[in-house]
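Deliverable D5.2: sample structural annotation.
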Amino acid sequence: PSTEGHNDPATLVAPEAGGRTIPVSTMRLFARCYVQAEVDRRDPRLLPAFADPARLPKNVLVITAGYDLLADEGERLATQLKKDPERNVVYQRMPRCNHNFDKKAVPGTREWELKTVAYDLAVEMLQL
């Protein structure tokens, strides 16, 4: 999901060309559903990029997809959190994958293999 939320979806660019990005109109709809118009879109209780890093978990896993317009937001969050040497931050971009790649992965495909990698990372993080 978005970690910054205040960016106009029309200005976002996926790190890798190709794939299927989330349509801008859909992203705008999701944004309107997620945060009411009168609420500050930079409220740290809604979007982790604006939270005090000290209030976030010590163990953080961020997985993004190369064809996802939201990938750079996740990477910026991971980079910011990694500045704290006492924090365990694992960041992994899944190359040539669309947003939500893990939900539509078919056994035997590259997406399935990357889904397995992502889920294994999540299990490892939860065991810390």
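Annotation notes: The two ends are 23 Å apart (CA to CA). The CA atoms of residues 15 and 44 lie 25 Å apart.
The annotation will be released with the project's public dataset once the embargo ends.
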